[in-house]
Design brief:
- 51% of the residues lie in helices and 7% in strands.
- It has three helices and two strands; from the N terminus they run αβααβ.
- Strands 1-2 form a two-stranded antiparallel ribbon.
- Helix 1 packs parallel to helix 3.
- The N and C termini lie far apart (60 Å).
């Protein structure tokens, strides 16, 4: 008597505690969250607060790129989780939850970085605006609403 495996019966590898969850579900949910987080950072699609800054701020530029990097890392984590679930070795039953928690943590971190950037922009915009003391073209910083720190 031999034990049937899921592959021999035509099933998919990567069983989880939730029988209906497969690798493509992890990738799909993670990618959907990543795309939604990216779209909500585009001022054209969502209302956003704007700050007029007298001088260019490399710190704000760095924070913006960091937040976008975290959103992209969340999308890559979703894909990596799906790939790991499809591996030959049977993954742990909690693997889908672990990867979705990683995706959520990266998106929360991105919102935190954005909230910090907005606080800095508000502080810089609150300084006195004197004619001629600013850069030739004042920089505009757009703070997009986040899901966790708005």
């Amino acid at each position: 008597m031999t034990a049937d495996t899921a592959e021999q019966r035509g099933g998919r590898r990567g069983g989880t505690a939730w029988p209906g969850w497969r690798a493509e579900h992890v990738v799909g949910v993670g990618a959907l969250l990543g795309v939604a987080a990216l779209v909500e950072r585009i001022p054209r699609f969502v209302p956003a607060r704007r700050y007029l800054l007298c001088h260019a701020s490399p710190t704000l530029d760095h924070l913006t790129l960091t937040a976008l990097g975290l959103v992209l890392a969340a999308g890559m984590a979703a894909v990596a989780g799906g790939v790991m679930m499809q591996s030959r070795r049977a993954p742990g039953r909690a693997l889908p939850v672990v990867w979705l928690v990683v995706v959520a943590a990266l998106l929360i971190a991105a919102d935190g970085v954005d909230a910090h950037g907005e606080a800095l922009a508000a502080q810089q915009a609150a300084t006195v605006f004197t004619e001629g003391a600013c850069d030739y073209i004042p920089q505009e910083y757009t703070a997009t609403p986040g899901w966790f720190f708005w």
